[in-house]
Specification:
The complex is a heterodimer of chains A (109) and B (512). With 109 residues, chain A is mainly α. Chain A has one domain. Chain A contains 4 helices and 2 strands. By secondary structure, chain B is an all-alpha fold. The chains are: A mainly alpha (109), B mainly alpha (512).
């Protein structure tokens, strides 16, 4: 019985264009993009600001805490950013997983 | 040689061979061989990614560079880590959802053309070979210093070990060697950093104050600009570091060892934390070496600064810690080269032989055979080249590998998943433009031609000004793919719909 189900599933050709164009998938993709694109733009800007500032100015060389300058604070902030963004990503991605499973249940099976 | 060094060295050899023996018994199919049957947990794979990624260049090279050049060495730490955001946000999950064993598999989810697979396999092999030679030559020189054995013997030992792991234990052995290495490396880093911090009563600010007077650079030591004086050169390097990682075949391959995108994501998180902590600690190793070992002694041991970390261990922890850090360096080298052999073998045996020459009509048994022969081939070729390259300055090969990965692989990966209009011609032109421009520009750059004898591979005036050409070659890869696509007629909207649905939902049709 179970085997028969799997066989039937294999036989059924999936119309991906139909899924792709469905409002459900379109909406899902839009939400994903609205999250990923601004985040990606943000971390690239944050990252490149450091070498740009250190290469073209000495503004970060001023001391922040004792002998630790702003350069180092900014450098360590890069690490903090990675950990914060990756946690945010995981939380968000888990909700995307639920949506993806819903699409598979509704349209692909 | 110190008996403790020999004991720890042998302990690593025996432990990894034992792991290989167990793995060999579990390796029954091609899937086991290439991807450990997709059976690793997110945490295990995360550690393995860290083990695969943190090479001796990271461990010894960055610590040495921070010790000798201050802040500029830390640029590498930052770039190598932020790269994981690119992997996490853009690459890991679609890759896991679309691929099977190799990067080319993922691209082939969209394009059947054999030339696309061929070009992808070509760039994989280029990266693997360059990276491996850099690792092996570096390893030979390093082991020579650490354990006082001749270069040739050192290269042969590392070469034989990596061949044994991959040939018999495939991905299962490789993964576990990488996990063991990651744990050892992190332990070593934490111990040494802890001892450095202890000397300053955990007052980080005091370390900064101390290091200001420890080197010949004085207060400038803490400011950027000692090594990287050329703004565009710095930016180009930073670009290669941040984009290169998501195109490195041995890193990408690690995402096929987990069962789904969710686990792939979890492994990136574990890897990101491990790698992040590691790179923060490089700071204490670097500063510690500058303070407790001193510039002159570091330079005397090795002009590249590679001995900074082991010498620091010796200075603050005596012979035992020196032996332990040396053993960690050895394990580090083994884990990275094993990962490289495996990804090279997969491109040769799976992509070129199995899919292109045999057109996929090949039994599982034949595939395993081909994979093992390819692993042996990749190993032998890279060992032979490395034996001859002892006196060449091959430091540029690592940055070249990152540059090829960023310029040839990343554009194709991103276009395949995210660009509707992208087509076969575009995939070929993107890869070739990125690959060729990276190769040509590096070969006429200051890292290959230097007027100072011994500073680079050849003596002469460089034609191209940047050490790392990523600033030019990455845009060329993207532009090449764009032009190749819009100048050719082919469109396959249905195929893109399929790739997009599968990449984003993780849906798989059975037996496909």
């Amino acid at each position: 019985m179970v085997q028969k189900d799997i066989l039937q599933e294999e036989m059924k050709a999936v119309d991906y264009v139909q899924v792709y164009e469905s409002p459900q998938f379109k909406e899902f993709l839009k939400r994903k993009r609205k999250f990923i694109i601004p985040m990606t733009v943000f971390f690239f800007i944050f990252y490149f600001t450091l070498p740009i500032l250190t290469s073209y100015s000495t503004i970060l060389n001023t001391p922040a805490i004792g002998d630790i300058s702003w350069t180092w604070i900014f450098a360590i902030a890069q690490f903090v950013m990675v950990w914060i963004l990756s946690s945010i990503y995981v939380r968000k991605a888990n909700t995307f997983d639920d949506e993806a499973e819903q699409i598979i249940r509704d349209q692909l099976k | 040689m110190d008996p403790i060094v020999i004991a720890l060295f042998l302990a690593i050899v025996i432990l990894t061979l034992f792991v290989t023996y167990i793995a060999a018994k579990k390796t029954k199919s091609t899937g086991d061989f290439y991807t450990a049957g997709g059976g690793l947990t997110g945490f295990q794979n995360g550690l393995a990614i860290a083990g695969d990624y943190l090479s001796a260049a990271s461990f010894l090279g960055i610590a040495g560079m921070i010790a000798l050049k201050g802040f500029d060495g830390f640029f590498y730490s930052i770039g190598f880590l932020i790269a994981y955001l690119v992997v996490l946000f853009l690459v890991a999950e679609p890759l896991r959802n679309l691929g099977k064993y190799t990067l080319a598999d993922m691209i082939n989810a969209r394009f059947d053309a054999r030339k696309v697979r061929g070009v992808a396999a070509l760039s994989t092999l280029t990266i693997v070979l360059f990276y491996m030679i850099a690792q092996l030559v570096g390893a030979g020189a390093l082991i020579q210093l650490l354990f006082d054995i001749p270069y040739t013997v050192a290269v042969l030992i590392v070469g034989c070990m990596m061949t044994i792991y991959v040939l018999f234990g495939g991905m299962i052995a490789t993964s576990w060697v990488q996990i063991i290495k990651a744990v050892l490396l992190m332990a070593g880093m934490v111990i040494v950093s802890f001892m450095v911090l202890l000397k300053f009563n955990f007052n980080i600010s005091a370390i900064f104050t101390e290091v200001k007077t420890a080197t010949s650079y004085g207060a400038d030591y803490l400011n950027p600009g000692i090594h990287y004086t050329e703004p565009l050169g710095t930016l180009s390097l930073m670009l290669a570091l941040v984009l290169g990682t998501s195109g490195l075949p041995h890193i990408l391959m690690r995402f096929f060892t987990v069962k789904d995108a969710r686990t792939a994501r979890r492994s990136v998180i574990t890897a990101t934390w491990t790698i992040g902590i590691f790179y923060i600690l490089t700071l204490f190793l670097g500063f510690g070496a500058a303070i407790f070992v001193g510039e002159a002694t570091i330079l005397e041991a090795n002009p590249g600064g590679n001995m900074a970390a082991p010498l620091l261990a010796e200075a603050i922890g005596g012979n035992i810690l020196f032996a332990f850090i040396s053993a960690v360096a050895f394990a580090t080298i083994l884990a990275v080269v094993a990962g490289l052999v495996l990804s090279g073998a997969s491109a040769l045996a799976h992509d070129l032989y199995g899919q292109i020459i045999k057109k996929g009509r090949i039994s599982d048994k034949q595939q395993m055979m081909a994979a093992r022969i390819a692993a042996l081939g990749v190993s032998v070729v890279s060992i032979l080249i490395s034996l001859y390259a002892q006196y060449l300055n091959v430091a540029f090969l690592v940055s070249l590998a990152f540059c090829v990965a960023a310029s040839a692989n990343l554009p194709v990966i991103l276009y395949t998943v995210y660009w509707k209009r992208f087509n076969t011609t575009g995939a070929v032109t993107a890869s070739l433009c990125g690959l060729i421009s990276a190769l040509v520009l590096v070969s006429i750059s200051p890292s290959v031609f230097s007027p100072v004898e011994g500073a680079a591979l050849f003596v002469g005036e460089p034609i191209f000004p940047l050490d790392n050409p990523a600033l030019v070659s990455v845009p060329l890869g993207f532009i090449g793919g764009y032009l190749g696509t819009i100048l050719s007629k082919e469109k396959d909207y249905a195929r893109f719909a399929e790739v997009s649905v599968r990449a984003h939902t993780g849906f798989k049709v059975h037996n496909k």
